[in-house]
Amino acid sequence: MLKEERQHVILNEVALHNKVLLTDIAEMLDVSIDTIRRDVKELDNENKLRKVHGGAVSLGFTNATVRNTNIYALEEKKKIAEKAVMMLKEGGVVFIDGGTTCLELTRQIPENIKLTCFTMSLPVAMELLAKPNVKVIFIGGEISPDSQISIGPSTIRQLSEIRVDYSFIGTGYVDSLFGLTEFDWDIVQVKKAVIKASKKTVLLSISEKLNSQHRYKTCDINAINTMITELDPNNNLLNLFRNQEIHLL
Prior knowledge:
The protein is α/β, with parallel strands linked by helices. It contains 10 helices and 15 strands.
């Protein structure tokens, strides 16, 4: 495979999942980790992604100031956000996760709706502060430099002390049989705590992530009450999820 082809695959995987591991890409392309490391370093120098220890992160995932550039599938994420906003109720208490789709939801919250929003995402918190009728409560802890969200025991303890009406979460990977998965163990532990802290959990996911899985399991698919994609709920791509105890929007 040519270098240009490898780098195209790397950029696509990073854009889709926000972060990738060098080992996963090397295995996918059947090349050495050193080869992928060189590719990632070159892409980082070209400002197409950000190289991190053992992997790479999309620029749109790490840079809160990026709006219309470097955001993968932005139009699809806007459609998802439009659907999610319809679930918000006056006076509601909600949790909003990190990631580009949840950030788009935050941006689309109407200025006149009164809400209490918990979040552990720095970019989401900063966006929420621009909403005059939203009370913002940041759940602190160790800040992940890659995802800019709080992780660790302190974050999990604080989540155990709240109960929100809805949590709006993202995921790296989702499958009708294996549920929600990630490759980051710390992120999985925090998301488990978010689900426990929620009366109902809403998954926001572009359809490209459907039928994918990784190492660490966040939850079974039926732990999610509602899944929102950019697709029409009757789309055939959602058939495998329709057999589960989950509402599709």
